[in-house]
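Researcher: For the record, we're logging two predictions in this thread. I'll number them. Prediction 1 follows.
Model: Prediction 1, sequence and structure:
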Amino acid sequence: MFQPTAFSPAPAASPQLDGMAADAVTLGREIVEIAGFLDAADSLAGDQLRRLRSARTAADAVARGNARVIATIEGLSASAKTTQDLVEATVARLREAAPRTAAVAGWVQSVDGRMAGVERILAAVQASNSGIGSIAAQVNILAINAKIEAARAGDAGRGFAVVAEAINDLSRKTSTAAATIGDAISGLAQIIETLRHEAEGTAITAGAVLEGTRQTDSSLGEMSRSVQHTRAAAEEISTRAAEVRGADQLFRPHFDEVLQGVEAQAADVQDLRARMGGLNALSEAMIRGTVELGGSTEDAPFIAHVRATANAIGAAFAEAIAQGDISQEALFDPRYVPIPHTDPPQLMAAFTRLGDRLLPEFQEPAFELDQRVVYCVAVDRNGYLPTHNHRFSQPQGGDPVWNAANCRNRRLFNDRVGSQAGASDAAFLLQIYRRDMGGGEFAMMKDLSAPIIVAGHHWGGLRLGYRF
C-alpha cells in the first residue's frame, strides 16, 4: 500500500506565529459560520421576496378584477333598471288590457249559448215549414178532387173548376216554396251547427287565454320583484367593490414600502455574502501564509499527507503516459460523456478508467491518518471526480437520494469548494465549509487540497475532507 513521504513544515518562527496560524483557522471557521447564516438569511430574504412579489401580483390581479367587477356591476345595474322599467310597463299594459280580454272571452263564451238558441229556433221553423208543406199537399189533393167533381157537374161546375185549378196551382207553388225554405233552413242549420262547435272551441281557448293572462301577470310580477332584488344586490356589490378599491389604494403604498425594504435588505445580504467570500479567501491565504512561514496548527499532518500524496499521484499519471497506458491529451481531455439512466447524473471522461485503476492506492490510506477523515479524492481542474473512495462508489439504485449520498464517483463537483480545490495551484489550500447533512442540519468541515502536477502541467488537485 502507498505510504506518502511526509512534508515537514519549516521550524516555527515563534509561538506568536503558531498563534496566528491557529487564529487564522478559527477566523476561517467563524467566517464560514457567518457565511452560513448569511446563506440562510439570503434564502429567507429570497423566499420573502418571492412571496411578496406574488402577493403584489395577486393584489394587482385583485385590483384589476375589482375594477372589472365595478364596471360589470354598473352595467348590470343599468340593465336591471331598464329591464325593470320594461317589465313594469308590460305589466301595466297587460293589466290595462285584462278587462277587455276578459270581456272578449266572455262574449265568445256567450256566443256558444246564443248559437244553441238559434239552433232551437231553426228547428222550430223547420218543423213549421214541414207543416206548411203537408198542408199544401192536402190542399193539392182537395183541388184535384174538386176538379174531378166540377168535371162531372158539366157546365154548372165550370166556375168551380176554375177556382179548383187556381187552388191547385197555389198548392203547387206553396209546396215548392216550402221545399226551398226547408233546404235553406237545413243549410243554415248546418252552418249554425259548425259555428256552434267552433264557438265551443273558441270559448275553451278564451278561457285558456284568461288563465294564461292571469299566470303571465303573476310571472311578470315575480320577474319585477326579482329584477328589483338584482338591482339591490348589484348596488350592494358596487358599494363593497368601492370599499375594496379604497382599501387597496390605502394598502398599496405601505405594501410597496415593505417590498422595497425587503429588496434593499436582500441586496445588502447578497453584498455582504460576496464580501464574506472575500474574507474567506483572505483567511485561507492567512492560513497558508502562516504555515509556510513556519506556523504550526493541528492541520500540519494533513497538509503534509495531502502534498506528498498529490505529488505521488502526479508521478503515477506521468508514468502511465510514459508507458503508453494513456496519452497526455486524453488525461487532460475536459469532455465528459453522460452515463445513461443515472440520477444524479454520472459522467465518463477519457481518463476515468485509468483513475479507477490507479487512484484507490493513493486515496484509501487517508482513512488510517485520522478518524475525522471523511473522504480523500482526486479531481481535475473542473472539479470532475472520476474515482471516489470505496465507501462512496456504490452502484446506483432507484432512489436518487440514496444515490446522491452513496454513489459519488464519476460526478462533477463544481461548487465553490470543489472548483477551487481543482483549480488552485498554490502549495496547499485549506477551505472551511458547511456540509449539508440533510434535514436542515450542517456539519463544519475542512477541505484540504494540494495541486496534482503531471509532467509540469496542472491536472487538478487532491482533496482531503475531515471534520473539526
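Researcher: Logged. Prediction 2.
Model: Prediction 2, sequence and structure:
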Amino acid sequence: METMIKIQNLEFTYGKQKILDNVNVDFPESKLSIVMGKNGSGKSTIFNVIAGLEKKYQGNVFIGNEERKKIKIGSSILRIGFLTQFHQTTFPFKVFDVVMTGRSSFSRFSPKKEDFEIVEQLLAKFNLWHLKDKAYTSLSGGERQLVLLCRVLVQNPDILMLDEPTNHLDLHYQVLVLETLKDLVQQGKTVLCVMHDPNLAFMYGDSFFMMKNRQLIDLKNYNQDEIQSILQETYELPLISLSHQGKTLYVPDLKR
C-alpha cells in the first residue's frame, strides 16, 4: 500500500498551548482515511496543516514527495480539494455560481460548456438542481454543506480533504455523501475525512485514526477489544460492540 501523505514528528502550538505533539502517521493512497476524536482534540488543526492553512509547525508533512511548506499554489502535480468545517458568506451568490467557482482554476474565469455540464451533473446528483438560482445565503445548513461539497468535487482533486462532511445532513444525505466518497476512492482518489460518528466511519472507511492526547493513533495496530477500549476512553462512555454486515460497530451501553 503506497503512502500519499506522510507526517513525521509533527508539533503545533497555539500561543503556549500545544495542540499536536510528535505526530507520526501515514495516510494511504487511494483509500478513505477517517480521523476521529473529541471536540477540540486537534483534528481540524492537523487537517489545516496538511491543507497548507497552518504553516507554523515543527516536523515534516510530505504530500507525495513534496514537503508541505514548499508547495506553492498551482505548483504541485497533485491537486488538493479541501472542505472546511465552517464557512460564512454575506453575499447572496446563486447556488450554481458558488459551485462554478470551483472550476475557476480550469476555466480562467471564462467557463466552457464542459464546466457547465460538470456543475449541472453534480447538482443533480445531490438533488440540488431545483436550487440552482436560489441565493446561497437563503439555504439551510444541510443544503449549504452539500453545495460546498459540490464546489470541491467539481475541482476533480487527487486528494480530497473533508472536515465534518456529514455535518448538518440527514441520514439519507450522510449515506449519499459517503457512498460518493467511496466511488471516488474506487476511481483512485485519496480521501481524508474528519468525522464524529465512529459507526458511520467504520461502515464506510478503509483506514481509521484517533486523535488522543495530542497524538494521532493508527487503529490498524490494535485488535477489536483494544479499539473498543480506546473509543471508551476517548468519548468517556461505556460501549458494547455489535457485528453488522461484516463490520464491527460500537454503541453506548444503555444498561449503564
